[in-house]
Write a structure and sequence with these properties.
The chain has 15 helices and 16 strands. By secondary structure, it is of the alpha+beta class. It binds one RNA strand of 75 nucleotides through helix 3, strand 6, strand 10, strand 11 and helix 11.
Amino acid sequence: MSTLKAVRGTRDLLPPETALWNHIEAVARAVFARYNFGEIRTPIFEDTSLFARGVGEETDIVSKEMYTWEDRARAQSEKSQSLTLRPENTAGVVRAYIEHKLGETGQLQKLYYIGPQFRRERPQKGRYRQFFQIGAEVIGPPSAGSESPLRDAEILEMLATLLDELGITGWTLQLNSVGSSADRARYNEALRAALEPIAHTMCADCQRRAVTNPLRVLDCKVPEDQPIIEKLPRIVDLLDPASVEHFAAVTAALDAAGVPYTRNHRLVRGLDYYTRTTFEFTHGGLGAQNALLGGGRYDGLSEAIGGPKAPGIGFAIGLDRLVLTLQAQELNQESAPPQADAYIAPLGEAMNAAALSLARELRRVGLAVELGDGSFRLKKSFEAADKTARCIVILGEDELQSGILTVKDFSTGTQTKVPRADLAAFLAEPSK
RNA sequence: GCGGCUAUAGUUCAGCGGCAGAACGCCUGACUGUGGCUCAGGAUGUCGUGGGUUCGAUCCCCACUAGCCGCCCCA
């Protein structure tokens, strides 16, 4: 019988790596709080039609990457229902916005989420079937200012701040506008027409893309094709005046705030709901998956799934990729394993009960304490203590009788007698 | 879903058609209470899983599974 393993594309996250995950999440929460975002937690599965209508039937995500099953009826009166593990979280957030009539508040809703998403893709580095995203959405009725380009710029400025505060170096913000859905359809046809006579001079992939999905030609990385791609029509030339004005306002605000960005005419994103502003923050060193995060405006999404007019803008950060990037950066640095403040070494099993009592006392005042076992010989206690804690506290007959504990600080090698009443304060002082 | 590479000790990896290896890590080492550095000794294991070829397979062949890389696409 084969041993059970985590299924393909899923994985266990173990210490000490989980400490990094928690750190990233804590920084994100702190940054979001400063921008006055609140947390939303939506279900991990939804009615399949939410994604079909929201993300788009023809997208790769919906057409071939979803985990979908039929949740069978359990009573005569109940109908079976097609359910899907969420492949992204924006649709769920907008569904919740509609369901709870958040638009009726008249206020701009600023919501963030942290959680797992599911797509059945071939796993690679930085790509998993259960992966984690940190995302946020700004959505509301137009009267609340949800259409303002200031919201776009603020989101981008917040993301730049977040990456900076996480210590991510070398990121690039790629920015584009895809206009209205009508603009995008016109552009698609313009590209197709422009490619038809020249596609045969391009790489094999592009020849195929020119027919199946002209927008993807823009992503081609073959050097010989670049001059050809540069001469293709740009979507910016086909945008309606309002979209042009919107985009200009976004870039003007970014310039004023000093957020660096790169105008990328080729940035087209794969989800149907994007309108106007689209963006990616990319980072080298992630291989083919160079996008740390992506997002954009989705002015028609709410209406597409049966809600009121509720323009919005949001993003999703690939948490797994953020972790990979930070781990790669930290390769050059020494990362010390987490250390407890003290290791209590009871001498003999008769001391165990007293040791727990002492540990409780220290832990209650906030010290991190590792508790040894009285069956260990002192030598073994020292070995264990040296690996897990800054100090060892010896608790034997003498110490119990006298109330004076023996403490040795590993960083200095000095051994001290400390009255039990002073122990917590002694341990709390950073050793010099 | 397609193509390429890979799978050996806890970890990183050598290796060979004929007894399974290194480094690091781990365990032990006088003493009724002293770690690190060094020294001595020790254990590592279904050689990914299942078939096949062979007197004999960890090694060669096939399938499967998983990982990595690329494609597709995306976070």
